[in-house]
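Lab manual, section 2.4: Encoding a predicted structure.

Procedure: take the sequence of the chain (484 residues), apply the prediction step described in section 2.3, and record the output as structure tokens. A sample record is shown.
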Amino acid sequence: MTSEFLFDVTDRGRDAVIDTLMEAENHIPGLVFSYPPISAWQPPQGEPPSPEQLWEGSETFSHNLYIHIPFCRQKCSFCYYSVAVVRDDTDIIWEYLRCLEKEALSHLRVRPGWRVETVFIGGGTPSRLNEDQINFLFERVIGRFDLTDCREITYECSPDSATLGRIRTMAENGVNRLSMGVQTLDPEILRKSRRNDSPDEVLRTYYHMADSGVPNVNIDLIAGIEREAFGNMERTMDAVAGLDPLPTQITLFTLSVREGSINNKTLLRVDDPARMFRRSLTLYRYAKRRMLDMGYWQYSRNLFPRDNWIFHYQDNHWGNNGYVLALGASGYSHSHSHTYLNAFNYREYMRRINNGESAVEKVYPLDEDESLRRHLVLAMKHAELDIRAFESHYPDSARPLERFRTAFDALESLGIITRDEDHIRYVPEFADLSDRFVRLFYSDAVNSRIRTATGAPPQSAADRLSDGGRSAPAAPKSAFDFVV
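Recorded output:
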């Protein structure tokens, strides 16, 4: 069985949890980027919640702003995000930007002077915006928020559109972190993944970014694209090692094949998902070793900084349960009482905004238990969890981690984590698989929703033993959160 694994461990003892963890090794770990996962969210029943209802009581954690720019020149083979392939249609981009302004104003009427700590402009390809459009985005959308305490503004770039003039305009507007989706520097894999850039063009854009005065420059890499060979990954890492200066951060992913990607129609026809993941993980670990030799260290499952260059948006959002207001098509937001998704298709998003309708397409209400689980699930994607910092957000007597003691005991017994009074830490090789282990903290209600949305994932090992191993669980259907 190669399907992704859900844990059924409520009220089970340590040994039963250990049995389930061992069974999970036969299944792909997937990629967790939200909790509850979006496959568990549902369309609103009746009228969508108003901004007032969505954001009431959101005072405990930091506030962060995400803006989605969906426009791309082409769709890469691995991409599963909401993208719009519009080559030179600046009119539609302007119309979309005006919709972002309208959506921002609808929220600011509820929370005037909304103060945000970080801003992330992602896509899609945000560097498709020209200089005038970048200025509009900052003046008419981002600039309407209170940036007094904002410590990071990230702008995502692509080699096919991040011109020197556009990068300068980003820097002039206060961007202090640039991120480029390099993915690979091997010419064969660039071509196979439908990217029009050559390695030389990618490097030229990187040096424009490095020379821009923006202090924090990240590059993204994906291990295992298009079933690449070791030699392909080696060429990429040799090229990265030759960069001068080196990026302040590298974000490294294993390949994720999701519904909506071209790979979902191509790679899965010719290869087994579990085998693809094992190949990708082997290349990921090779790249990780190379990065550690270059002076990087592992902060989370995917982030490898040099020195103390932390990705504050992700640290707020994942590590510290920060709220996220997401503007634009497919943006997913997190308040204290809800997680919700805007209309995934950018034309439907624009239609709703222009008609004065709610952009909310899916929603999942959060009670205090699910809010705590969200905090823990995403925090445990990091190489270590600071117990005192985590518990500082809860009443002194709450001891919120105590209720998960059995899961932590099982992880420690298998040598996956270590614990002391102040920290929970992954043993280094297991941080690479944290997306598997965080599922121990999913609630029964969320697991049930996932089953409804995707088909029945595997039972726990204990359940299978109890019926003599006779039941064969059905493989899940493809869904947004089920990945290789």
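Check your result against the sample. The two ends are 13 Å apart (CA to CA).
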